[in-house]
Amino acid sequence: MTDASAAVSAVAVSTARSAPKTATAVGWAVATKGSVPRQLGLSRSALEANGFEGKPGQVLAVPNGDGVAVAVGVGDPGAIDAAGLRAAAAAFTRAVPKHARLATNLADVDGVEPKVAGQAVTEGVLLASYRYTGLKNDPKNASRLEALTLLAGGKGARDIARGADRGKVVASAAAFARELANTPPTYLNAKDIAAKAVDVGSAAGLHVEVFNKDQLEQMGCGGILGVNRGSTEPPRMVKLTWSPRNPTGHLALVGKGIMYDSGGISLKPSDNFHQNMKMDMSGAAAVLATMGALKELKVKTKVTAWLMCTDNMPSGSALKLGDVLTMRNGKTVEIHNTDAEGRLVLADGLSLAVEEAPDAIVDIATLTGAALAAVGDSIAPVLGTSQPLVDQLIERSDATDEPIWQLPLDSKRYRKLLDSVVADMRNIGGPYGGTITASIFLSEFVGDVPWAHLDIAGPMMVAADDGIYARGATGFGTRLLIELASNFSPPA
User: Fold this and answer.
1) Is 278 a catalytic residue?
2) What is residue 239's predicted lDDT score, i.e. its pLDDT?
3) Active-site residue 343, yes or no?
């Protein structure tokens, strides 16, 4: 099985004052007004005659000797930002899919700090080049990209280069998260992802601990064990720790790792949504990919992460409606729907995170269909007990263009929906506000530690190529968590 994420990591990224002779496609930024790069060989009127006006997302390829010059629209010159540059770089890459050696001046346009621009453009090119081809005998659509040169002159060139270096690390991490989530469950079960975590940890200076079923039983992790009851594949919990010298804070991450989610006894219908339940471990994938990037980015925050990994399957031994589970923190939970399993495994992970006494906890999970109903498939809801922590996530979301939207954690009005006759609580609420009630459930396991929850059920995948995303898993949340860890401040 080939690894498309490795192909992203292998791309040579550099800076230069002018396009190297080896570059066969060069992208030139063109705004809706102002001068047009002479290298295109076309005037603005000629571009407009071909339907190109410089609007965001527009591209026009012009044969130029042995290569191609590409006009890349960046929009209003007074409104160019990092997100726009990232999208423009992606559009350029998609316009020349057969070219292996690219160059572009996108990172050197006015309006965006050079380091930020270098990172954004590098991410845009590399992420748009990703294609999952792992099981294809003839991967016709595999990326051909081998090299990217950012054209930069003047005082900002060094900062553009620094940004490009960071962008490559971040893009490689996001591609790895995509690779994990795209891989069918036959090829990636809980044991497999634990083995990958060990490999990642060895390369990235992490302390890695893997816990098997017997150990989880000894630890009283009734949530993940309950979900695992219907599966023939044993569960795994993975703890990863990044411990820099003189850390500036301690952040805990918990990722939902349901390697395949059938719904259990509450069986999902056989539709496209069910088919994509190999991606129900996208939260764990994002966390693992994030942890793998911390050393190379020299992150000063101590980060401890838990991957809660198991299948959710129907069988004679599977969790039943009315069963009561005892979680790691001692709370008892009555099961009213076995397809509300993600919160059960997260409950154990959150409880363990609390015991480490971090400054804050963030969990990430493909948790509820209600999240799609609330904010659609491009935005992830965020809820939490700490507004300063939520604000940090929102700020990093703006920086990475991984959009999140805060929903209310209204326990006063909605906690009663989780009341149980026989246990401390039930695992689902009523028919409405499912993202909120699921978050209230999780809040029962975080104690007094500042906590935030990201529900990425909507943006976990795209059905067709779109900007930096290739059809399939998006790796959503990876870049956001990397930036959070890199800029983390313990909430007051």
Assistant:
1) no
2) 98
3) yes
Strands 59-64 and 207-211: unpaired
pLDDT tens readout for residues 174-204: 999 999 999 999 999 999 999 999 999 999 9
> Quick one: how far is CA 106 from the chain centroid?
24
Pairwise CA distance, residues 391 & 42, whole Å: 46
Q: Six-digit token pair at 394?
A: 């929102």
* Rounded CA separation 44/103 (Å): 22
Among 44, 343, 426, 479, the active-site one is 343
Cα–Cα distance measured from residue 195 to residue 201, given in angstroms and rounded to the nearest whole number: 10
Low-confidence ranges of the chain (pLDDT < 50): 1
| Global pTM value | 0.97
The Cα 180–Cα 198 span in angstroms is: 14
- pLDDT tens digit sequence for 359-417: 999 999 999 999 999 999 999 999 999 999 999 999 999 999 999 999 999 999 999 99
**Domains, in order of start, for the chain:** 4-167 (3.40.220.10), 183-486 (3.40.630.10)
Output the pLDDT for position 1.
45
Alpha helices in 186-302 (DSSP H): 190-204, 213-218, 222-228, 272-275, 282-293
Query: CB–CB of 279/457 below 8 Å?
Result: no
Is the separation of the CB atoms in 308 and 350 below 8 Å?
no
H or E segment and range at residue 349: helix 342-355
Sign of torsion over alpha carbons 464, 470, 472, 474: negative
Q: Which two tokens stand for residue 183?
A: 């891989």
Q: Which of 144, 268, 300, 471 is catalytic?
A: 268
